Amino acid sequence: MDTSGFDLLQTAVLLLDDAFCIQYANTAAEERLRASRKQLIGRPAQPLLAGLPSVLKTPLQGQLWAWLLEIPAHQAQRLDDLHQARFDQAAQRETLRNLAHEVRNPLAGLRAAAQLLEMELSRDDLREYTQVIVAESDRLAHLVDRLASSGPEAQARQTFNVHEICERVLALVSMEFGPGLTLIRDYDASVPDVHLDRDGLLQALLNVTRNGAQALMEGEPRQAPTLALRTRILHQPVLMHGQPRMGLLIAVVDNGPGIPPELHDKLFHPLVTGRAKGTGLGLSLAQDCLQHMGGLLEFDSRPGHTEFRLLLPLEAP
Ligand SMILES: Nc1ncnc2c1ncn2[C@@H]1O[C@H](COP(=O)(O)OP(=O)(O)OP(=O)(O)O)[C@@H](O)[C@H]1O
Ligand SMILES: [Mg+2]
């Protein structure tokens, strides 16, 4: 086999002998495995491939080598990007969590002092000021509580039906936004029960679905506001920890105005909001929840069609 053409490929290519040791590596493989050809040749391939998604193995019969291995470039790049994004978001959330803990105590002190002061005041017009301090402290305390929550602590997994969660979320959204919002269920009945953090998934799905409903129902009235929940089984989705054999997709689709373009790049960062009363934590918390379950949250958006996809591994961890 002539191997010279392999160096032109973006796909990492390895040729192995029948003991699964590397006999040849192309340039893309050197980059992907972060080792020179000289270092790779003769080494067993298996330890190097652990954790890499979608390695294609082709047996080579009657050739000098026993196996041809390919690691597609776009998958590798996508996984690198995912890990980088996760790292950035985790670092940001950690900073904010620490800040929230620092702010909590002085805030409680401020509130208590304002209440004591209020008891000493005899004039009602002056009490209005202390009431502003108490009300605004409460608002800040709520924000701080949300910032401090959802640490990376282990979650309790349980076995449950995903469509029950979808129904819970739709019931809550329908109660909050009323009958003017059309809700569509597009469920795949063959989705099996999952073994995941039920509360985390409920929270993540609720955050995403409420955002869709808010985009449709707040602001200018729109024609036929519609929100759909779709479930599907996926084969070999690219997730945080590689590619499980099967995955679960829960898509939340709305026909609202779309996500403001200036938010696209930082949408999952905490405190990023496009709503006057938003805290910008809903999506960041949802992304956190899903990633802790080995899944992830992604989106596509244009005016008239916004789709958030909750992706989860379907196999038991
Ligand atoms: N389906 C959607 N359609 C249009 N814009 C959206 C949609 N989902 C999210 N957004 C935009 O993304 C922003 C961030 O959402 P996120 O849920 O993180 O925060 P929030 O809704 O502003 O506040 P919070 O959820 O903390 O109350 C929103 O403020 C909104 O501008
Ligand atoms: Mg939100």
Shape: elongated
Task: Please report the total strand number as a whole number.
Answer: 11
Number of H- or I-type helical stretches: 8
Strand arrangement in the largest pleated sheet: 6-8-9-11-10
Order of helices and strands: EEHHHEEHHEHEEHEEHEE
Strand content: 15-25%
Low-confidence spans: pLDDT under 50, at least 5 residues?
none
CATH homologous superfamily title of the largest domain? Histidine kinase-like ATPase, C-terminal domain
Question: Helical residue percent?
Answer: 40-55%
CATH architecture of the largest domain: 2-Layer Sandwich
Overall tally of domains = 3
Ligands and ions found: adenosine-5'-triphosphate, magnesium ion
Structural class: alpha+beta
Distance between the termini: 40 Å
How would you sum up the major sheet? Answer: 5 strands, mixed
- Please compute the radius of gyration using only Cα atoms: 26 Å
In CATH, the topology of the largest domain is named: Heat Shock Protein 90
What is the residue-mean pLDDT, rounded to a whole number? 88
Seen as an oligomer or otherwise, the chain set is: single chain
- Highest-level CATH class of the largest domain: Alpha Beta
